[in-house]
Amino acid sequence: MREPEAFAALFDRYYTAIHGYAARRLGHGLADDVAAETFLVAFDRRGSYDTGRPDARPWLYGIASNLIARHRRAEVRQYRALARTGADDVAEGHADRVAGRLDAQAARGPLAEALGDIADGDRDVLLLVAWEQFAVQEAAEALGIPPGTARSRLHRARRRIRAALGETDPTTLGEDLDR
Amino acid sequence: MNDLDLLRGAWDEPAPPARAAREAARAALLDRAAASKETIVPPTTVPPATETPAAAARRTRRVRLPKAGVRLAAVGVLAAAIAAGVTVVQGSGGTDEHGRPRSAVPGVPAGPVANASEALERAARAAESRPFTPPRPDQWIFTEFRGRKGSTPNGPLSRDPGKIRVTRHWQRADGKKAALIEKGRLEILGTMPTTPPSDYPSLAAMPTEPGALLAWAYRGLGGLGETAEGRYSTTYTMLGAVLRDNVLPPKVEAALYRAIKRIPGVRLERGVDAAGRPALALGRLTEGWLSEQLLIDPKTYTYLGERSVAVKDHTSRGDDGSLTYRKGDLGILSVRLKAAVVDKPGQTAP
């Protein structure tokens, strides 16, 4: 990777996304720190970056995930608060809501509660897949775990999420679980 | 809609990051990248000497000497005792519940700085984020310093902490009057033009683009700017003096830190303690033996003071005999306690 130009380009391309991901998990204040530090850490570790990879995105999200993990208690506390109030005082929302989103937002309380209960490693995989639309393979790469492990973590997390949504019909479980 | 879609839809799209946070993060990255190359980027513009010799000579006479009253013959004879065993206290706004550092200044990253460039950039950003009301022409700029006094003029400072003195100075914002305490009485004095300027109107009109500010400084050096090292060394001292003696508009202050960033040879020094307070020290080696340091508060990144330390034994010979410094001797130790705009001379708080 040619530096520092390459890093400036990487920053311009991914900073907003990384910041948004951290903001949803930790709120804006900590997201400023996490997003900034993600790129500093990435720079410091540039020697270990495999330049054969087509895309730096999983690598950056992996670093961000590790930094977010340092704020585990803050993250969980936030989900608990959200579960109680249903209100999102974290990532100030936009007012425009489309039809399906009303349902989704109504489900936020129970979902937040579930997120607070899920094991940390499971949550890392789940949120990369759900919020950042990573494929399981990419999430595994980001978190430095075998794809099989990522798949079983995601599976476990989704069971918990579905239970929170009141879904009890076992036949719907697993239909698209291995995405 | 499956559970993953619901989970995605249940959270609002995050608001975009604040511009200040983004810029600070980007600058921090580029600073680290630049520093890692371990090459020193020379200033981009070194203006040609366009002054007439007479004008240059006039300017030379007006070159302001360091505050300790060092004469030109003894330039560089300013030095200090690195307090042995002092640990670096590089913090920020305290720590969060996980013991991780938290930034005390909006838009400035938390955590320790890695190099001089990062420290100076944080100081610049902190300056930009401070609220500021320009002084009225009839108001006064008040500064208060605490420093140690040596027993020999220009010699190393005493190691006796009892010899600490506090000095206070006032300068009217129109630049036409100054005041100080002499034998317990307030004395009002007239002023003279100086290089660099010390009157608020001239300082507020300085370039706010770092390259232009550096070019402006180089033009004002007269005979001291004939060699590259002379230019760097004198400009470093000069810009430090502007930071030290004044209350400045945020853009000017930020530009000063960023101009210093471009002067070759400025390094982040560790293990520094200024008058009992922790500090980040930006040091530049003069004449191969004296580290001249600009001190910055490690939490708020505000200007803290200056200090100079001999990094090896050195004897300088002048017309009036010789002066010997031992490695570790302090030449200057001056910590700024206050810098504020007040209504009257003699007043020490707004």
TrEMBL record, chain A:
Keywords: Sigma factor, Transcription, Transcription regulation. Residues 10-77 form the RNA polymerase sigma-70 region domain. Residues 112-161 form the RNA polymerase sigma factor 70 region 4 type domain. SUPFAM superfamilies: Sigma2 domain of RNA polymerase sigma factors, Sigma3 and sigma4 domains of RNA polymerase sigma factors. The keyword Transcription applies. Pfam families: Sigma70_r2 (PF04542), Sigma70_r4_2 (PF08281). The keyword Transcription applies. InterPro entries: RNA_pol_sigma-70-like (IPR039425), RNA_pol_sigma-70_dom (IPR014284), RNA_pol_sigma70_r2 (IPR007627), RNA_pol_sigma70_r4_t2 (IPR013249), RNA_pol_sigma_r2 (IPR013325), RNA_pol_sigma_r3/r4-like (IPR013324), WH-like_DNA-bd_sf (IPR036388). It comes from the Bacteria. Belongs to the sigma-70 factor family. ECF subfamily. NCBIfam families: sigma70-ECF (TIGR02937). This is RNA polymerase sigma factor. It comes from Actinomadura yumaensis. The lineage of its organism: Bacteria, Bacillati, Actinomycetota, Actinomycetes, Streptosporangiales.
Automatic annotation (TrEMBL), chain B:
Keywords: Membrane, Transmembrane, Transmembrane helix. It comes from the Bacteria. Residues 91-110 are annotated as: Disordered. The chain crosses the membrane at residues 68-89. NCBIfam families: CU044_5270_fam. This is CU044_5270 family protein. It comes from Actinomadura yumaensis.
